[in-house]
Structure formats: C-alpha cells, structure tokens
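Thread: quick sanity check before group meeting

JM: Hey all, I'm pulling together slides for Thursday and realized we never actually wrote out the predicted structure for the chain we discussed last week. Dropping the sequence here so it's in one place. If anyone has concerns about the input, flag it before I start.
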Amino acid sequence: MNLSDPWNYEQFDAEAQRLYEAGDFDQALGLLKEALTRYPDSAELLVSLGYTRLAREEYAWARAAFAGVLRLDPEHEEALAGLGDVLLKLGDRAAAFQIFEGLIAMGYDQDVELMLCVGRSLLREGLLRRAERYFRLALAADRESPDAALDLAFTFYRDGDTEGALFWSREAVRLDPRFAEARALYGNVLYERGDFRGALTQLATIPVTDLADPIVAWRVVDLKRRLQDLPADAEELQPYLLALEELAPEPSPEDRLLAEVEARANGLTAGPGTGQLDLFGRPPDAPAVEVHRVRAPNGVVYEGDWDGIVRAMRNGSEEPGVSLADFMRNEAMRLQALTGIAVSWQTARAFLEDSARVGALEIER
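JM (edit): ok, ran it. Output follows.
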C-alpha cells in the first residue's frame, strides 16, 4: 500500500478493518493514525481506532477514541457499544449497563450485529444473565441468526446449563449446517454427556480445513480409534494428525531451550533438590515443595508447583503481561467455548486439572 495515493477515509477504514480481522492490530493502528492525520473528523476512523485500541487492551486510549466519536455524533451506536465495553473493562459496570440499555431505548434492539456485540462484551465479563438478554434480542430481531443461537448456547453452557447449551448449539447447526463453531460446541456437549457416537458424528462433520483448535482434532482421533477400532497409523486419521501438527507444532530445539530458561526464571525446577533453599540449606521446618510435571500440546514440559507452572505458561503466551487470574480465566473461557466443558480458573491446580480433563494438556505427575 502506498500512503501517498489519494485514498479516501472509507478506503483507509476498509484496509484497517481487514488488518484488524487478520489480527494485525499493530499495522491497523499505524494505518488509522495516518488516516486520522488526513481525516481527523471521521467518525468511522475513530470508531475503528477505538476498537483497535480495545483489542490491544489500551483502555484509556480506546475510551478517548470513542468519546471523540460521541462528540461528533452523540448517538453513534458503534461508539456507544464500544464505550460500554471499555467501561466494563475499567470496572464501571453501572455506566456500561446504562449505555447498553440506552441503545435499546434508541431502537437498536432490531440491530442484530449490535445486540450480539453488546452481549459478547457482557459474556466476556461473566455477566451471563445480562448477556442472555441481548442475545435473545438479537434472535428476536432475526429468528434465522445462527450466531445468536450459538452465543445463547455458549451462555447457557457457561452457566452450567448443558440442556440449554445442547438445544441452542443444535439450533445453530440447523440454521447453518456449515457453521464449524456450532458443530464443535454441539459435539463437545454430546461428548460430555457420554454420547460419544453422536459427538463423533458432529465433530467429524467439520472439514479438517476449518479446524481452528487442536482439541477438536484430538477428540476426533480419539473417538475414531475407540469407536471404529482404528490403528494409530490409519489413513483415515492422517488429515487430523496433520492438522494437529499445524495447530500444535513440535517446538524447535531453540523453543525448548527458551521454555526451559523461562521455566527456571519463574522458579520452576527439573526435580527436587535444585531450588535455592536446597542450595543454601532448607530450614528444618520448611514444607517440602510438591513438584508436578505438565506437558503442553506443543511438547513443552513444565515442572514445578501448580502456580509456577501456570506462571510459566502465561509468560510464554501471547499475553505475558496479564495477571495469572486473568490468564487462567481467559484460557478457561477459550477452552470451554471450544469443548463445551467447564474449566475452572479460580486456582492453578483446578485450572490445570480441568485443562487436562478436556485434553488441552497432559499432567504426567
């Protein structure tokens, strides 16, 4: 792209949205900054800037961007929804709720995408009943919306209502038989309920090219081997095994070394007797540290106590700066959305044990 070309604000915005959807938030931000030097009063560009800042967790900057839009247009619905999301992140729930309810009063309850956007903001914060309200409004506006049905399914499952999750995920599949996320949730709910053949039917229907997480691929391989008595090297399993290699590749020697260095930097040990207390003499009344061993899908092995293992996993993630609680909560929500199985995040031990239960890692000791 040549920024010297006479692009209008709509072209800038379209390219920024393409970069945003591709996950390239840095490039999107840079492009939007350049565009706003040319079109400083563009509400569309400011809205995109706000959501890009929000994706980068730059909440104060996101709030300023949305506020700038609202100075130009006090009833701009996308800016209002974005500002409400920011306020939720900043802990001002009352103000966020007021904004969201104001959107309904303005007649935007008929805007399916906006209602889904608001509902997802609430769902991310664990405000399940409020999220359900907006997803139902979206469904009332469009009875044929598979996205609204699936969001309701996620909401019910996170609330422990597997019957509701089963009903709405099945409905999402009915509305869009090619909706991979809906089939994944539907199949995983069936799996949890013990309907393994039904689960395999749903999960195996998802095209391998649409698999976005290794958990579904693992389950298809596991269920095919168990229910169809296939050998580990069966030709039928090869596409899923190849997908696993792409989704959870084996780390290079350099990656393994880096993981080991990070683990040691975070107080993890390769076994008893290597900690600082052992080097300089452990006090006689000091409790023994229980060492565990966890293997991640990419082959990296973590050893140490539960908290230390989660800390090392967090430091090696795409969000090393978040708190341990936020890391576990975000990862638990991701796993639950993919597998349909609740994953605890209140303690490191519960988080790791539940992650192993859904097949996201292996606890070796």
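AS: nice. The first strand starts at residue 292 and ends at 295. The radius of gyration is 23 Å.
JM: adding both to the slides.
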